[in-house]
C-alpha cells in the first residue's frame, strides 16, 4: 500500500469509500507528506493532521452546496482545490459545560497534531480574538486553522446570561482513551494506525455543535449584540468556512461573478499587500429553536461558506506569506451576519 493509499484508507475508515474517493479526486494532497513514511505501528502526526483536514473539508462541502459545486467545477477545469485553512469560533467563557474554555477546547487536540499558534489577531470590532494555528512539520502544505474566541465579558449582562444558557450544556466528544492517544502524540509525534482510527472520529466530532437546544429568545438576544455569537448558538464549533488557495484571486472572482455565484462585494487586502481574500456569502440552513410556548420551530439562519485566498511571496524570506490579517478576517466574518 502506498502512503497516499494509506491516507485515504484512514479517511475511508471514518467517511466511507465514496467520500474518500471524492476527496482524492478533488483535493490536492501535498507531496511533502511523502517525507514522512507510512508505518502502521508508528504513524507520524502529519498523516493524522492531513486526514482530519480532508474529513473536515468534506464535512463543510456536505453542508454548503455552493462549496461542493465550486470544488467539482474546479475539477472539470483540471484543477484540484488547495486547502489553505479552515476557521472555527469558540467562546471565552467559564461556563462551557464539559468543554475547556474557549480555544483551549481545540489547542488540546491541534497541538498534539503538530499545530502551534504562531500569531494573535485582535478582532476588536467583533469583541473577539483570533489565533493562527500552523502545522510545523509542513507549514506551507497542511491547511492551517484560524481559531477565534468571542469575549462575552465585553457585552451586556443579559447577553452573558444567554451565553451561559446556550453553551452551558456542552458535552465533550473527547474521552479518556482519546486523550491518552493525544498525550502519546505529544510525546513521540507518532501513534499506531489503530489508534489513529480510534482518535479520528472524536476529533471530527469536536468540530461541530456540542450544546443542546437553543431558546428563540436567547438567539434573538445574542443576535442583537453579536451576529457571531448568534451563529455559534446554532452552529457551535463547526467549520465557519474553508478556504481554497488560488493563484489569481481577481481572475477567480471574475469567473465566479460571471457564473452569478453569491460573492462578497469586495476583496480584502492585508496591510502587507501580500494576502488577499474574498468569499461566497454564507449558505442558509434550517435550525430548530424553542419559542416562548415551548414549541420547537424551524428557522432559516446563516450557515457556513467557502472563502478564496491568494498568498504572495514575502520578499524577506522568499516564501509565501502564511499570515492572516485582522482587518481581512473581520471583513470575511461578515459573511455569516444575517443583518449584513
What is the fold's blueprint, element by element?
Blueprint: H1 3-15, H2 17-26, E1 43-44, H3 45-63, H4 65-76, E2 83-91, H5 104-110, E3 115-123, E4 128-135, E5 144-150, H6 157-167, H7 176-188, E6 190-191, H8 193-206, E7 214-215, H9 216-225, H10 227-235, E8 241-245, H11 249-258, E9 268-269, E10 275-279, E11 284-290, E12 296-302, E13 305-311, E14 313-314, E15 319-320, H12 326-333
Helix pairs in contact: 1-2, 1-3, 3-4, 3-8, 6-9, 7-8, 9-10
Pfam families: HGLS
Cofactor: Fe(2+)
Keywords: Dioxygenase, Iron, Oxidoreductase
Task: Give a short summary of the structure.
This protein has 340 residues and is an alpha+beta fold.
Largest sheet: 8 strands, mixed
Question: What is the overall number of helices?
Answer: 12
Question: Segments where pLDDT lies below 50 for 5+ residues?
Answer: none
CATH topology: 2,3-Dihydroxybiphenyl 1,2-Dioxygenase, domain 1
Estimate the mean pLDDT confidence: 96
β-strand amount: 15-25%
CATH class call: Alpha Beta
Structural domain tally: 1
| Structural class based on helices, strands and sheet pairing | alpha+beta
H/E element sequence: HHEHHEHEEEHHEHEHHEHEEEEEEEH
Pfam family, one: HGLS
Cofactor: Fe(2+)
InterPro entries: HGLS
Protein name: 2-oxoadipate dioxygenase/decarboxylase
Amino acid at each position: 500500500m502506498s502512503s497516499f493509499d494509506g491516507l485515504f484508507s484512514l479517511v475511508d475508515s471514518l467517511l466511507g469509500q465514496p467520500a474518500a474517493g471524492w476527496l482524492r479526486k478533488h483535493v490536492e494532497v501535498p507531496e511533502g507528506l511523502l517525507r514522512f513514511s507510512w508505518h502502521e505501528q508508528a504513524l507520524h502526526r502529519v498523516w493524522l493532521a492531513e486526514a482530519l483536514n480532508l474529513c473536515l473539508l468534506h464535512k463543510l462541502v456536505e453542508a454548503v452546496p455552493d462549496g461542493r459545486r465550486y470544488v467539482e467545477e474546479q475539477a472539470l477545469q483540471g484543477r484540484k482545490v488547495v486547502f489553505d485553512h479552515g476557521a472555527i469560533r469558540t467562546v471565552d467563557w467559564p461556563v462551557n459545560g464539559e468543554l475547556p474554555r474557549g480555544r483551549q477546547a481545540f489547542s488540546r487536540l491541534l497541538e498534539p497534531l503538530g499545530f502551534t499558534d504562531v500569531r494573535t489577531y485582535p478582532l476588536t470590532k467583533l469583541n473577539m480574538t483570533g489565533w493562527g494555528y500552523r502545522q510545523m512539520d509542513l507549514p506551507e502544505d497542511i491547511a492551517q486553522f484560524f481559531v477565534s474566541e468571542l469575549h462575552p465579558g465585553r457585552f451586556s449582562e443579559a447577553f452573558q446570561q444567554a451565553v451561559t444558557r446556550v453553551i452551558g450544556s456542552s458535552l465533550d466528544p473527547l474521552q479518556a482513551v482519546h486523550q491518552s492517544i493525544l498525550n502519546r502524540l505529544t510525546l513521540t509525534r507518532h501513534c499506531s494506525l489503530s489508534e489513529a482510527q480510534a482518535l479520528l472520529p472524536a476529533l471530527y466530532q469536536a468540530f461541530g455543535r456540542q450544546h443542546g437546544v437553543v431558546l428563540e429568545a436567547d438567539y434573538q438576544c445574542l443576535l442583537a449584540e453579536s451576529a457571531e455569537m448568534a451563529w455559534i448558538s446554532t452552529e457551535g464549533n463547526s467549520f465557519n468556512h474553508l478556504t481554497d488557495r488560488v493563484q489569481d484571486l481577481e481572475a477567480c472572482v471574475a469567473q465566479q461573478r460571471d457564473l452569478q455565484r453569491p460573492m462578497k462585494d469586495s476583496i480584502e487586502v492585508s496591510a502587507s499587500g501580500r494576502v488577499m481574500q474574498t468569499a461566497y456569502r454564507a449558505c442558509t440552513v434550517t435550525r430548530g429553536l424553542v419559542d416562548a410556548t415551548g414549541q420547537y420551530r424551524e428557522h432559516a439562519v446563516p450557515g457556513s461558506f467557502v472563502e478564496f485566498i491568494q498568498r504572495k511571496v514575502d520578499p524577506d524570506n522568499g516564501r509565501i506569506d502564511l499570515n492572516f490579517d485582522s482587518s481581512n478576517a473581520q471583513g470575511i466574518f461578515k459573511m455569516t451576519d444575517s443583518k449584513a
